[in-house]
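Renewal narrative, Specific Aim 1. Our central claim is that a sequence can be written position by position from structural information alone. The example that follows is taken directly from our test logs and has not been curated for this report. It begins with the structure tokens describing the chain, in the order in which they were read.
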């Protein structure tokens, strides 16, 4: 597989991913449309050899210090390599995207929801009321704090899969029995108030811009809309509400995420906005399809401009 393109161009970009390089292939096509040199690689290609006190971190045979900017698309389980890359690039004063990798103690992505929520709340980003503790404490305290229904989330869940919502005491007891097995394996949980929002918006942030946005129906909308609820919308969010843009940019900036997906909901009755999560490695196939935007090209242009500043 030819993993380099446009090697006669100026800005040298490296994009890394934990796992297969296949998701990075569209960047090669996009690179032909912009002024850059591009190399894509899996973290498994990262290597070094210590010799006579010298240390050079390489991807294949390329010194990482020879690139102008490095973008980590997805860490996956490659935390050790990500830490090596982050430390080395900072020592060599090479630009690294996302910025969060340069923050001490926060180079393990995606951020656990307990930490993400803390940082966003402290920054003034509107979030659902959240209670973090052991599963035992959640089962005892959350019904008093939130009432029913409320939401329980695994702090390291993927793409909204580790999410539950007990509607009563009986359902809570059944869930706790099952979730205790996950807790014994190391999973931690947060609980949150249930927001009656019928649509969920995903805003794609690239640098200081919201590049595109889509809207999708929320999972439990029929609980408060009824079984005869009108089917939810699945389309481009256009125009993107200005307040949601501001909140998305504020959330991403305060986490140090330069390329990310920010999920926002608006309570149907009050119109209040809440950030559900900020995904540092968002899937963007749906956004690309609904919004007709070349996301890989837009990201490469952002990286090139970042080097030029």
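The sequence written for that structure reads:
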């Amino acid at each position: 597989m030819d993993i380099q393109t446009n090697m006669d161009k100026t800005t040298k970009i490296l994009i890394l991913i934990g796992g297969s390089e296949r998701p990075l292939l569209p960047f090669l096509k996009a690179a032909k449309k912009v002024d850059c040199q591009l190399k894509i690689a899996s973290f498994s290609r990262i290597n070094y050899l210590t010799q006579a006190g010298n240390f050079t971190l390489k991807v294949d045979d390329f010194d990482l210090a020879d690139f102008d900017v490095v973008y980590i698309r997805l860490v996956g389980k490659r935390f050790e390599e990500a830490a090596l890359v982050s430390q080395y690039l900072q020592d060599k004063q090479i630009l690294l995207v996302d910025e969060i990798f340069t923050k001490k103690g926060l180079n393990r992505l995606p951020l656990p929801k307990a930490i993400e929520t803390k940082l966003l709340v402290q920054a003034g980003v509107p979030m659902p009321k959240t209670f973090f503790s052991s599963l035992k404490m959640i089962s005892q305290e959350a019904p008093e704090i939130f009432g029913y229904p409320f939401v329980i989330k695994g702090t390291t869940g993927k793409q909204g899969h580790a999410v539950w919502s007990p509607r009563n005491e009986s359902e809570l007891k059944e869930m706790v029995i099952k979730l205790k097995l996950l807790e014994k394996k190391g999973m931690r949980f947060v609980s949150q108030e249930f927001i009656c929002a019928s649509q969920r918006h995903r805003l794609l942030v690239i640098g200081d811009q919201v590049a595109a946005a889509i809207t999708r129906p929320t999972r439990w909308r029929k609980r408060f809309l009824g079984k005869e609820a009108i089917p939810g919308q699945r389309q481009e969010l256009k125009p993107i509400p200005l307040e949601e843009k501001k909140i998305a940019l504020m959330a991403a900036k305060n986490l140090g995420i330069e390329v990310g997906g920010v999920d926002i909901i608006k309570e149907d009755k009050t119109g209040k906005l809440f950030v559900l999560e900020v995904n540092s490695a968002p899937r963007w196939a749906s956004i690309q399809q609904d919004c007709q935007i070349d996301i890989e090209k837009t990201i490469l242009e952002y990286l090139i401009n970042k080097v030029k500043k």
